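Chain X:
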Amino acid sequence: MLSDIEIAQAAEMRPIGEIAAALGITEEELEPYGRYKAKVTESLITRTANDPDGKLILVTAINPTPAGEGKTTVSVGLGQAMAKIGKKAVLALREPSLGPVFGIKGGAAGGGYSQVIPMEDINLHFTGDIHAITAANNLLCALLDNHIQQGNELHIDTRRILFKRCMDMNDRALRHIVVGMGGRANGVPREDGFQITVASEVMAILCLASDLDDLKRRLGSILVAYDMDGKPVFARDLHAEGAMTALLKDALKPNLVQTLEHTPVLMHGGPFANIAHGCNSVRATKLALKLGDYCVTEAGFGSDLGAEKFLDIKCRFAGLKPSCVVLVATVRALKYNGGMDRAELTMPDINALKHGIINLRTHIENLFKYHVPVVVAINRFHTDSDEELQYIADYCKAMGVETSVCEIFAKGGAGGTDLAQKVCETIEMCQENTFAPLYPDEMSIAQKVNTIAKEIYRADGVKFLPAAAKALAEIEAMGFGSLPVCIAKTQYSLSDDPKALGKPENFTITVRDVRLSAGAGFVVVLTGDIMTMPGLPKKPAAFGIDCDNEGNIKGLF
C-alpha cells in the first residue's frame, strides 16, 4: 500500500495556470510560485466582488482520537466528489503548521487519494505565509524591547508585557524564558515566552482582514502591554503597524493549488482551533464563493472548537451563512469516546460504539442550535464492521440526519459521490437560510463564555480563577466587552479535561486567563491547562522524515 507522500509524488499535476484558467482567472491575476502553486492578485478579488456567491459548506467533526479522524481528507474528497457529479466546487482550506508536521500527525494536506498537491511544498515552506507572520510578529517584539532599551518613553511596565514572540515549531523549552541578559548592551532583562505562530494574534488578523488597510488597522490595535499607570499600550503606539504590513502584504494574498484530481484549492491561513479560531482566511473563503457554485471549507478539530468559532467569530465578522454542515465521524473515534482503549480500536465492538455515540448526538444537537442542516460523513476505515456502520446510520436517521459512508481515502472523489449528492440535496431542501450565531454582541464576555460552556460543552457553569476575573474586568473597562470570545480548550473532550470522553456530565469549565486580541477582534479565553506553545511527543514525526541526495522528501505522512 502506497503512503500519502508516495501517492502525491506519483500524481500528474497540471500547471497552475490551467487550474486558474478553468476558474476564469486571467494570467495577469495570477502570481506563480513555480509551476504548481501561485498567489492570486488583489485585482481578481476586486473584479469578482459583485459576482453572485455559491453555497458555503462547512466540514467539521466529532471529538477525535489523538490520531485525528481525516476531516481534511473528507473535505478534499468532498470537493473532488462534487466535480464527479458535475458540480463546480472550490476548496478553501488552511495551510499546515510545521508544528504538527514534525510533531504527532505528520503531513496535513489530506490523505490517500484525497490530497492537496504539491504535498511536500504545502507541508513545509509553501509560499512563505507563515514565515512572514512569524517575522511580523517578532518585529513587533523587537520594536517593543528596543523602545524599552532606548529610554522607555511610553513608561511600559516590563512586568505587564502581554505580547509574545513566536515560531512555527513545537518547542516547550521556549514557553517561559528570560530575555535581555548579558549587560546593558543586550537590552533590559524581563520574562518573556514564545507561542506557536499559528496561535498568534498576527495569524488571526491575517485570516480575518478584508484588505491591506484593514490589516494595518488591526495590526495597530494589538494590545502589547500596560504602562506604569495601568493604561494600555498598543502596537500603533510603537509605530509598528506600517512595517508589519509591509512584511505581510504578499502573505495576505490567497494561494491557489490543486487536489490530486485537479479540483482548485484556495489554501490560506492556518490558525489552530484548540488555541485560536481555527479557520482559513475570510478572503480565501469569500473568493471561493465567487469562483465556484460550492465552496467547501473546514474548521479545525471537533465542532465544539472549530465549528463554534467558525460560526460565532468568522461568520459574524464576514457576514457568511453556511448552507450545510458536514459532520465527520469515524467508528474508531466513537468507540474511543465510548471508553475503548486506543490500542484496541480496530476490533469490532458494538457496545463501545453504543456508549460513545452520545458524542456524535451532542455535536449534531449543537449544530442544530445554529439553524443549519447537517449531513454526517462516516469516514470509513477498513477495520469498520458493517454492523457498526449500520448502527451509526440508523441512529442518525432517528435524529432526522442523513449519513454517507465515505471511502475517499482509498478511492478519491469516486468514494465520496454519495456524500456530495446528499449534501447538494440537503442544500436544495433547505433553501431558506436561517443561520444565526449562538449569542448576541451585547452579552457580557462572562455571559458569552457561560453560553458556550452550557450550550456547546454541556457544562454546569464556568469558574473564573482570580487572574482571569481581573483580566476580564480590565478588558471590559477598556470598552471591549462586546467582542466575541475565542475559547482555548482541549480538542479531545467536550469538557476542558482531555480524559473526559463521550458526553461528560456534572463538570464546570475552569478559566485560568483571559487575553484581549483587539486586532483580531475577539477575546481569548484559556481553559484547563491548554498551552499556546505545544511540545513534541517522545517519538516525533520528524524521526521519520528524510531527504535523499536528489532532493526527494520521504516520510511526511
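Chain Y:
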Amino acid sequence: MRSSAEIFNKGAQRYRRKLGSSLLYVSMTLWLAASLFLFPAGAQTITFADITSQSGIRFTHNNGAFGKKWLPETMGPGCAFIDYDNDGWPDVLLVNGQDWAGHAKNGSTTQKLYHNNHNGTFTDVTAKSGLAVSFYGLGAAIGDYDNDGFDDIFITTLGQSHLFHNNGNGTFKDVTTAAGLWGPNEFSTSAAWVDYDRDGKLDLVVSNYVQWSEKGDLYCTLDGTHKSYCTPESYKGTSARLWHNIGGGKFEDATQKTGFYDPTSKSLGVAILDYNDDGWPDILIANDTQPNKLFLNKKNGTFEERAVSAGIAFSEDGIARAGMGVDAADYDRSGHASLIITNFANQMLSLYHNEGNGLFVDEAPRSEVGRATLVTLGFGCFFFDYDNDGWPDILIADGHIENEIERVQKRVSYAEPPHLFRNLGNGKFEETTTKVGPAFATPKVARGAAYADINNDGALDILLTTNGGPVHLYGSQGGTNQSLRVKLIGTKSNRDGIGAVVRVSAGNDKQWLTVKSGSSYLSQSELVLTFGLGSRTKADTVEVQWPSGQVDKLSNVSSGQTVAIQEGKGVISQRAYGKK
C-alpha cells in the first residue's frame, strides 16, 4: 500500500501536467493535502503472538457439558482486565462455570485472578484474593461503585450474580447481600457500570437471557434424530435489570420506575453510549432473536426505548437477528458514536453508522465487514486502534454453539478464526486476520474478548476466551506508531471517570474516546484510554469532559507515556512506556 505522501505527490504531478493551469493545480494541491488527514497512514507489519503459555496464565473453561446439551453450556465464558491493586498494570480476571449437580466431570472450578508481574508474566492470586468461589459464572463488569479508589467486580451467573468489593489490600469480599443485590435468580449475561443520573455514583445494568431451568430444558434437534442446543426462541424472555446506586454501598432495583422494564428481551450484550450527543449516557441492549433495544436517557432518572425509530431494532429486511456482543465508537470521525453488533451465523455483523440525527444506517451489507462475517457466528467484539494510527479498528471473536453444525450446514464451522478489520478511513475496512500471525488466525470456539496494554509499551494486547477450552492472550508486536494513554480519576464524577469523554488533537488530527464499562460480550476491557498518534510525538491538546460537567484542558502532552488526569486538577502523574 502506498503512503498518503506518495499518493499526494503523484496525484499533484499528474494533475499539473494534465490541467496546465496554475489555479487548478493549487486547488488540487490543497485538496490532496487535506486528504492526508482524512485517511490513516500506510499499514504496518504487526503480529499478535500467542503469549499465553509464557505469561503463566493457565485456564480452561468448564461449561459443565455432559451430553444433555443444556442451553447455558453454550454461552460462556467472559473475561476482564482490572488493575485491582492500582499499580498501573492491568491484571486478568477469568470467569468460570462449574459441573452440573449430579453430573461431576471436571471437579471444582472457580473464577481466576492473575496478577500482572510487570514483565510479561502473571501470577495466580485467586486463592488469597477471595475469588476462589465456585458458581456457574458467565460475565464480568469492573467499576469502583463506592468511590474508594479500588475497582470492584460484578460477576453475572446462571442463578444469583455476585458483587465483590475490593478491600484495597489484594483481597475481595462478597457483598451481594449487604449491597441489596441478593434475590434475583436469573440467567444473567453481560453487565456494565454506568452513572445514568450523573450523581457521581456508579449504577449497574445487568442483561438477562431467557427463562431456563434444568427441569424446563426443551428437546431440540438439528437433524431430527440427535438432541441439539435450542434456539432462544424456544424459551420466554426476561427483562434486563437496572440497579440504582443509592450510596452507602447499597443499590435499589430501579428497573420498573426508570422505564427500563421489558420482559420480551433475551439480552446478551450491553453497551453504554451517548447516541444523541446530549451528554447523558444511553443504554444499548443486544437481543437474541428479539429486537435490539436502545434506551434514551431522558435526564430525569427515566429512559425511553427508541431502537425502532433509531433503525437498530431489526435487520434491513425487518428481521430480529441473534444479537450477541456490542460496542460503540466514532470509527469515521463523524463526531457521533456508531455501533457494531455481532450476530448468528448467516446474519453477518451489524455496522450501524450514526447519522447524527437520531438515525443509524447499517453499512455492513455494503462493506467488507459484512461480506467477511456472513457465515461466521460472532460473540465478543470491540473497536480498538491496534496499529495506533488514530483510527478505530474492529475485532470479532467467533465460534459456533453446535459442535456438529458442519453435518447440516457445510459452509459453517464449529471452530472459527476471529476477524480483525483495519480501519482504512472514509468508513472503509479491510480484513487483516491472516496478516497478524498464524496463531491469531487459528480457528477457535471463542466467546469473550477484551483488550489492554499488558506490558506498558503503548500497544493494545488481546484476551480471548473459548467455550469449554483454554484462554488465549495475544501480545502486540512490531508496531512503530506513537500513542498516548490516559487514565482518569474522578472527584465530583465517579472515581473511574466512567462516562467521561476525552478529546485529543494532534495537528489537524482529531479523535475522541469515552471511558466505559461493559461492551463486547460478557467481558470488559481496561478503563485506561489509548490514543494512536501515528508518527506524531505529541498531542497539541487533551480535553476531558467529565460527567459532572467539569472540563479539564491540557496542552503539549508528549506521546510515549500514560498520564493520569484528576478531575479539576489536571495531570497528577506521568509514566513513560517501558518503565515499571
